[in-house]
Write a structure and sequence with these properties.
Length: 57
Amino acid sequence: MKYVFDSSAIFKAIKENKIDILVGNYTVELARYEIGNILSKNHVLQTKITKQELSLA
């Protein structure tokens, strides 16, 4: 069975180091931009991730 992941589910999977569930499934084209916004907000507004971690994404 194939699944469609939105940006929040993708971010959560990456954050929990469970990216294997994403392999072979689908997402919408817009998700890459939404994930960029999530990363930016986590860095700038909430300082939950470092500038170095942001550059690796």
